[in-house]
Amino acid sequence: MNSLNYFYQLRSLILQIKEDPIFSLINQYKKYKNLLKKNPKGLLQLVNKFIKEQIRTQKKKIIYNFLAKLKSYQFDNYELLKGKFSGIYNNLIKFDIKHFITPLWEEYNRRIKTAILPFPLFSFLNHPVIRETMFLTSHVKWLKTEIKFIEKKYNTKLLRSLLLEDFIGMPEISNLKYKTSNTTIHHFYSISKFIDISKCTFNDIDTIIEWGGGYGNMAKILLRMIKKKITYIIMDTPTFSCIQWLYLSSIFGIGNVNLIENLNDKIEPNKINLLPICFIDQYKLDTDLFISTWALNESSKNSQNFVVKNNWFNARHFLLAYEQSNELYPSSHRLNKFAVNLGLKIEEIEHLTDSRYAIK
C-alpha cells in the first residue's frame, strides 16, 4: 500500500475517533483492523492502543451519564449541603490534634485544605491531592488479583450491585464491567477477606467503629452489604470528617449522617456518626467490629496507645490492615504485636509488599 495513502487513511481514522460516538468507534476499529496489520509492528501497537483508549474513554462517558441519571439525587443533596461546608470546617479545624497524627498526615491535612475550601467540588475525587491521599488511580496492576478473588466469592449480578460507583465525587471509572473504581474494588476486597477468614455474616453486628475512613467509601460499601440498621462510627481528623459528611450525606441523606461538632453532641444509634479525633477522649464507646485498613499504622504512637488503652472499644471482630515500619510511619510495626496479643489471624498480602491483614 502506498505510504501516503496509508497516512491519509490513518489521519481520517483518528479524526473520526475523536468525534464519533462509541458504536461508530467500534465499527471503525473493525474496518481498519486489516489495514493496520499490514504496517510495522510498533506502529500497529501504537495505533491499536490509541483506538482502544478512545473507545474506553467513550465508554466511561456513557457510564458517567448513566450514573448521573440513576443517582441525580446525589447532586441535589450536594447542592443543598455545600454552602454549610466551610462553616463546619472552620469550627472543627480550630481544635488541636497534633498528638494524634504524624507530621506527614499533618502536612496532608494542610494540603487538602486548599483543595476543599470553600467547599469540595462535586468532582472532588479528581483533585490531585485527594487522589494522592485517599484514592487508587487506574494504573494499579495488583487489582487483578483482588478482582479474581472477589469473583470467586460472589456472582456477577451481586457484584454489579455492590461495586457500582456513586455520582458524587465523580471517581475515575477503571473497571467497565462493574462500573466501578479501583478504590471500591480494593475496599470490597478487604471486606471479602474479612468475611472469608472470620466467617462473620454481620447478623450479630450492630455497631462498627472505623479508625480512618478516607472519604467514606468503606462505610458506604458495608452499609450497602448489611441488610439492617446499624450504628457506624468513623474516627478521623476534622478535615476528613468534613469530607465524609458531604460525601455520605449526599449518598444517604443528611438525616442519616450525624457529624459531631462539639462535646455536647451525642452518638446517634442506627446512623453514620462522624467523630473527629479532637473529641474522642470524651466518648466511652463499645463496638462489635473494629476496622482500620492502613490508617492506624499511619497514625501516631499516641493514637495507637489510645485505642489499646480503650481495649479496642471491646470489639469482638477485627479487620486490620497494616504495613511494616518505615521512615514515614515508624510505629507501624506495633500493629503486628497488637494483632498477636489480640489473637487475630495474621495473613501476608502477597500482592502488596510488606502489608498484612489481621482478622478475627
Percentage beta strand: 5-15%
Secondary-structure element order, N to C: HHHHHHHHHHHEHEHEEEHEHEE
Number of domains: 2
Q: How far apart lie the N and C ends? A: 66 Å
- Text of the CATH class of the largest domain: Alpha Beta
**Helix tally?**
15
CATH superfamily of the largest domain: Vaccinia Virus protein VP39
How is the biggest beta sheet arranged?
8 strands, mixed
Give the overall shape, derived from the CA principal axes.
globular
**What oligomeric state is this?**
single chain
What structural class do the secondary elements suggest?
alpha/beta
CATH topology of the largest domain: Rossmann fold
User: Biggest sheet, strands in spatial order?
Assistant: 3-4-2-1-5-6-8-7
Tally of strands: 8
Uncertain spans: none
CATH architecture verdict of the largest domain: 3-Layer(aba) Sandwich
Commentary on this structure:
- The chain is an alpha/beta fold and 360 residues long.
- Helices cover 50% and strands 11% of the residues.
- The protein has 15 helices and 8 strands.
- The chain has helices spanning 3-19, 22-31, 33-37, 41-70, 72-81, 85-92, 103-116, 128-134, 143-153, 156-163, 182-198, 217-225, 238-252, 301-309, 334-342, and strands at 207-211, 231-236, 257-259, 272-276, 289-293, 317-323, 345-348, 355-359.
- Strand 1, helix 12 (217-225) and strand 2 (231-236) form a beta-alpha-beta unit.
- It is globular, with a radius of gyration of 23 Å.
- The termini are far apart.
